[in-house]
Amino acid sequence: MGTIRLYKFKDSISRKMQFLNKESNLDDLDESIQTKLLDVEIVTEYVINISNDFIYENVSYKELIQLCSSADQTKEYYFVKNNRGYDLI
Asked: How far apart are alpha carbons 56 and 19 in whole angstroms?
């Protein structure tokens, strides 16, 4: 058995998070206030146990969605969209 991390952004799933520069956690109060006031995009990280013969390139999008739904751990990253692209909050 092995472990893989998948990242879901909008309608795509990939093995890498393209625009993550640094990490900053929000507490629950700040998160609810800021996500309502700002243009926020969410990237979800899924930690999934896979078999040793798993080949990412041979798995369909539908199968990746099913894998994500069975993830052992998930974490959300919040990005604020600005004029220069995305800034992580």
From this structure: 21
Residue 57 dihedral angles phi and psi, to the nearest 5°: -65, -20
The pTM (predicted TM-score) of the whole model is: 0.73
pLDDT in tens, 25-37: 444 445 555 555 5
The Cα 68–Cα 58 span in angstroms is 16
Handedness of CA 8, 13, 18, 23 (dihedral sign): positive
Alpha carbon distance, N-terminus to C-terminus of the chain: 34
Question: DSSP class of residue 53?
Answer: T
**Contacting residues for 45 by C-beta, under 8 A, at least 6 apart:** 5, 6, 7, 17, 74, 75, 76, 77
